[in-house]
Amino acid sequence: MSKKSNTSKRYTAEFKRDAVALALSSAKTVTEVARDLGVSPEGLRNWVKQAKIDRGEGPAGALTTAEREELARLRRKVREQEATIEVLGKATAFFAQQKTK
Asked: Which domain of life does this protein belong to (predicted)?
């Protein structure tokens, strides 16, 4: 298991996957496993919860990691398109005003 820099608090997908596997297979509590790994218990619980959702074991309507990533990508795309529409609207107004002069 390789963890990213201790100062960043961001962990690789591999580290999270291995931590979840350890938490699910260990006789220790999630808190104990988290302490052993140097991560927050809440963070490890969230990783375990998301892993279960990704395997189809979560509550109805819970988004998988892939669905969350797709939603984030689509939201970014909408923001970009809204910005483009705003620029085009301003350009249209500008050129319409220039045409009437």
From this structure: Bacteria
